[in-house]
Hints:
The protein has two domains: 16-156, no CATH class; 175-324, no CATH class. Residues 1-32 have low confidence and may be disordered. It is built from ten helices and eleven strands. The protein is an alpha+beta fold and 328 residues long. It has helices spanning 27-33, 50-58, 67-83, 95-105, 112-119, 137-162, 175-196, 237-253, 292-297, 301-308, and strands at residues 16-19, 42-46, 88-92, 130-131, 199-207, 214-224, 231-234, 257-265, 269-277, 287-290, 315-318. Residues 1-41 are annotated as: Disordered.
Amino acid sequence: MAARHARTPARTAAPASCPGAARRTDEARSRRCTPPAAPAPTLLGLITSREDFEELRRDGGTEYTSFARYLADTGELIAGIRAAGGSVRGRAFHPGDLVAYCAERGLSLADPGSHTAYTADPEAADTEWVRYQDEPLEEFLGRLDRARQRGLVHRQLERLLAETAEAAATGVFPTEPLREAYERGAAALRRMLLGAGPGRFRLVCALQPPEGPVEARADLLLVAGEAGGGTVLRIEDADLDLLCSLLCTGYALGLPGGVLLSGMCAERGSVAWGWGFDGGGADGSGFAPCNAADVLLDLTVPAASWIAVCLPGAAAVPGFPLDEIALD
């Protein structure tokens, strides 16, 4: 493993690679009771962009001088593992995250062992680890970056909930009001998508707590069901969970925010709908239609740039009233 991205004699490219450990059990009992366990996957921390690579190189965190060479070696490494019958799970190796990890734990950035510890951090959510599915390397790295982004948002939401008076005694927000808030958030999202109808869209949900904006975004496809069976949503499960979690936190903490839904609608053509969110009191959905352009102005530059590709030619209009959309 090249913990500091240095080339090893085998020319492995991964910044951190730690084969998963398999626990030994009594062999005789294992043969009697269970089939042989599949080999544990190899865990790789991988740089996902040229910008991150250049930042790491400037800081002396890798001996590679070319991102292209790094990608080539990474591809060779993964291909070798797969050819040997192994599986791979990856996690984005991000320079900023590495700095924060080392600072929190008093570790040296110059120590290769710190890179290994950061990659194998047991506190990292399982959803940040992505299984390689034999797709092109560029696609795999894109999935790793997306998983990292989702993980950052989940941690922001967890901090917001943990720093409340309700969580002061136990450090955990009470389950029942959180469950109710999740149901309200999921219902509001479902009404937006039902009202939109079939089409291909991009969606950004944003909260505006005093600490700064928290945003979740997702690509989604809505297709008409067979024989008039309603609308079928196609979206990554992890994206759907993140959107619902963000709306859940908004309801639970009464935080303001907004939603922007834009794309190509089968019936209306290019569209952009906006809703403002007032925190959702005990009554009502908490969402009110507002101009999509106003929601866009409140988004961070990355989120606004991401959804802006859908906006040229779109009619930026207030969203439809959610209380008029039946869920039955």
